[in-house]
Design brief:
The protein is α+β, with helices and mostly antiparallel strands and 68 residues long. It has one helix and four strands; from the N terminus they run H-E-E-E-E.
């Protein structure tokens, strides 16, 4: 019984090894040069526009102020 179980596990492991390997040609992309990236953030806190030096209250009723 042990011998059969070991052989079954070995056979399953070998089948995974041989099916997972493939001989695909690697596609090489020629990515060169410079590009531009633009990020925009919409600063909102608690549904209103965020502003520095303004007091905000969080859900735990604590007063928060973000100085510049």
């Amino acid at each position: 019984m042990k011998f059969q179980l070991k052989n079954s596990i070995a056979l399953i492991a070998l089948s995974f090894v041989f099916t997972s390997c493939s001989n695909n040609d690697e596609v090489v992309s020629d990515v060169s040069g410079n590009g531009n990236l633009k990020l925009e953030f919409d600063q909102i806190y608690n549904g209103a526009n965020f502003a520095f030096n303004t007091a905000y209250t969080n859900s735990m009723v604590k007063l928060l102020k973000f100085p510049v």
